[in-house]
Fold this protein.
Amino acid sequence: METLDYRSVSPTLMVPRLAVKLKQAEGMAPPSWAGFAKTAPFKRSLPESMDWWYVRAASVLLNLSKKSGIGVSRLSAQYGGRKVGTSKPHHVQRGSRKLIRTLIDQLEAAGFITISQGKKQVTPKAEALLSQVAAEVVEEQKEREPTLALYAWRLNGERIGGG
């Protein structure tokens, strides 16, 4: 029997569901300037989604959980991209570092991460939330794809589905 870990579940499936959970968490509200901010300097316009703040917070939390000790600079490089609409040669630009710093501050205030000696680490509260979301995603995928019900996983010692 395979042990289910949130690290093995696809981030594209986890991030939207985790964003919903973070939206319900206390202390995770977008700041007043979030309605006017772009997610990176190379972007042409503002995000279209109304919940983009929570989606980015979920993505940052998931990245911090997978790569312990990752910093703002590495995260901004991960959310970076290419400036479009110029005739100049391609240069990679970073994502907004202020946005990432603000999200990290909020995640720390909400109790999802701790910062000690400059290293950001995920708390047991966040580990439990990520495991819960992973279990929900797996159950949803089993309903969509019945052949997945053949597999059985363990999550924190409890059996999830399967025969």
In short: The chain has a mean pLDDT of 85. Helices lie at 11-24, 52-66, 72-78, 97-109, 124-144. The chain has five helices and seven strands. Residues 64 and 70 are 6 Å apart (CA to CA).
